[in-house]
Input
Amino acid sequence: MAGNWTASRRPDSSFLNVAELLGQTSLSTNAEGELVTPPGSTLTGRPTKWVEVTPFVWQDLNSHTQLAAVVENGQPVRFSMSLLSSFTVYDRPPTWKNAALLMPLLQASLAILLLTALLWPVRWLVRRYHGATLTLTGRDRLGYRLSRAAAWGMLLILVAWGTVVTLMFGDLTNLGGAFDVIIVVVQILTFIVFLGGLAAFVWYLWQVWRGKRRWWAKIWSVALVFAGLVMVWFGFAYHLLSLGANY
Output
């Protein structure tokens, strides 16, 4: 039972599916091998104490709630609780959408993009203060600048999506058709920035590794490609890289 589970009641085919990434339910076991569910899962406000009364059926000793799992080939593939079973069940998310895998990768990617974006103007200010110039020229300079601009673009697109979702649910009148234009514009920009940004990172990687650049630049070029791949993976997995305002 240990691992992440996703609720059956969710937006599954639109950009609002991103809520699934943040809302996956994590089950675990304690040192005694007892089932542990998130706080408040029984809606009683009291800590849960699950006891397995029959195979893959648990009773909470602090409430009347039961939890039962569907088992296939010896592995639990679905579960629900007695107070939810009439309208919600929980299934295993596919590996490529599992928050246990994707969230750490996203956090690492965001750290890489944020450092890249912030260090770009900082280095420019340092060079200006010391009267130095960027040693890169021609295509190498262009690749460097495009990779930094791509890092900024990806971060700003995520901010744009966060703003869109916040505005949609902060004022329900924004759920009308007038808001669809904004959604489609952000979707188009996401395609341009995510896919174009990944291409810029790959080009920068090729430039760095074919030239006589420092080892740090080579490592960071690999990190940027990693971050770009994770962002594109995230975009396709949760429908940020899609077109349409049906949600």
Q: What stands out?
A: Residues 25-92 form one domain. The first strand starts at residue 3 and ends at 7. The helical segments are 18-23, 99-130, 138-170, 180-210, 215-237.
